[in-house]
Here is the input.
Amino acid sequence: TLNQPSLKKTTSVSSAGESSSSESLMIIEHRKRPCGDGFTVHKYLRGKLLGKGGFAKVYKVTSLDTNKEYAIKIVPKANLVKSRARQKLQTEIKIHRTMKHANICEYKHFFEDKTNCYILLELCHNQSMNEMIKRRKYLTEEETRFFMLQIVDAVSFMHEANVIHRDLKLGNLFLNKHLNIKVGDFGLATRLDTSDEKRKTICGTPNYIAPEVINGDKEKRGHSFEVDTWSMGVICYTMIVGKPPYESTDVKSTYRRILANEYSFPEGKVSCHARELISSMLQTDPKMRPTLDAMRSHPFFSERIPNALPHSCIVSQPIWA
Ligand code: ADP
Here is the structure.
C-alpha cells in the first residue's frame, strides 16, 4: 500500500467497481483519526467517464451528502505493482494536495481500498485544451492571451513553491464551467529543496519536452524551472497555429527537431508580438528564456484580453461585440 500519512485517513470504498453501467453508488468510509475506530460515511454517485489516462480512469461523481459534483480519478492497484508507478502516484498526491490556486485543478481527497486508489478532484466540465483545439483547429490571439495569462499565474504559484510541473501540455490544461484554465496531472511534478537544485530524471511528453531534458544525461547539467517555460512556449504556439512546433512522424525525429530548434511560423498567421514572445520562450539556452514576470509584461499581453470567454468558444471562434 501507499504508506503516506495523508493516505491513512480512509479505509474502504465499496461498490465503486469499474462496471460499465452509467451510474453506480460508491460508499466511502473516512476514518476520523488515523488510528481511531470512528467512521464517517460518505456516499457518491458515480456518473459518466470523463477521460482515461495512462494509469487511470476519471469519472464524474456527485456527493449524495452535499449534492456537489467532483471528478474522481480511479487508479487500479494492479497498475501500481511497479515501484516507479507507485512512486509517481505518491509524488502526484504529495505535491498536488499543496497546490491551491484558482487556475490549478483542486485536489480534495485520497481514498483507497483493496483494488483501487481514488483521488477526488475539482470537476472540470469542459474537458481539456486538447479537445478544444481539435474542435476549433486553432484559437484567436485574444483567446490565447486569456488562457496564457491564467497558465502563467498557475505556473508562478507552483514555481514560488519550488514545484516544477514538467508535463505542461494541452491535455493537462483542463477547462471548468466558465472556460477558465485548471492545470492538472502532477504525476511528473517535482519539488526542489532549494531553487538552484537541478533535476536529472528524464520526463515529459515528446512534443513539449525541453532540449535540456533530452540532453540531460549527456551534459550532466540537469534541468530546472525553465522547462515549464519551454512547454508554455509550445502550448502558446499550438494554440495559435493549431499544431505543435516540433511535431514529427516519430519521437526520434521530434527530439532531433527540438535539439536543432527547428520550427517555423506559418506565413501570415501569427502577429509580430506573438512570434516574439513564443521565440523567446523556445530558446535552447534555458537561461535566455523570459521569467514569468517578464512574460506577463510582454507587449503581446498589452493587446485586447477578454475578461471572460463566451461558452460558444468551445466549438467556434468568438465574435467580439
Ligand atoms: P493520467 O495521469 O493517468 O494521464 P489524467 O490526470 O491526465 O490521467 O486524467 C485523464 C483524463 O481524465 C484527462 O485527460 C481528462 O480528460 C480527464 N480528467 C482528469 N481530471 C479531470 C477533472 N478534474 N475534471 C474533468 N476531467 C478530468
Summary: The chain is about 30% helix and 20% strand. Residues 1-12, 15-20 have pLDDT under 50 and may be disordered. Helices lie at 83-96, 129-136, 141-160, 211-219, 226-241, 251-259, 272-281, 292-296. The radius of gyration is 21 Å.
